[in-house]
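Throughout our pipeline, every protein is held as a single compact record rather than as scattered files. The record that follows is passed on verbatim for readers who wish to inspect the format:
___
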Amino acid sequence: MFMTNDLLVVVDMQKDFIDGALANKSAQAIVDAVCTRIMHHQGPVYYTLDTHEDNYLQTQEGHHLPIEHCLRGTAGWALDEKIARALKMQNATPFEKNTFGSTALAHAIAKENAARPFTSITLIGVCTDICVISNALLIKACVPNVPVYVNADLCAGVTPESHQTALDAMAACQVVITHE
């Protein structure tokens, strides 16, 4: 049993978003701090894996972002090695998703919250302006009375501007934006 029932959700800290097909210097810059946050967390930890199949370029997302990434089983689909070790040490629960937000994650959180209410839920990871915002809003919709936080310093957007725009949008939807 965990000391607290504060949930940490780590979003898509996979190689393709850090140093692979969609490499991002902002994502690279947060890896060590994200590892530290995972390791010091006292409650349950969930994480998402962006997961695409070989037909990615034929999907709607593939038409809008025609860069193959996070194809199941590839090196780019894997978690960053440091992140993977930290998640393993925390016995974190994975959620594969084939789109920006994971309804399976949000429903699992709602189910767990009904059995043992979460005191808070914090999201960290990438990309702030795509998958972090999508998951934060899905979670907020499924457990509207649980405080949902996004740590801005442990997230990275596609650009600094889109990162800030996503933070502002989440704040408008009563997601609390925090900093390290």
Summary: Helices lie at 15-18, 25-40, 60-64, 81-89, 103-115, 128-142, 160-172. The longest helix spans residues 25-40. The mean pLDDT is 96.
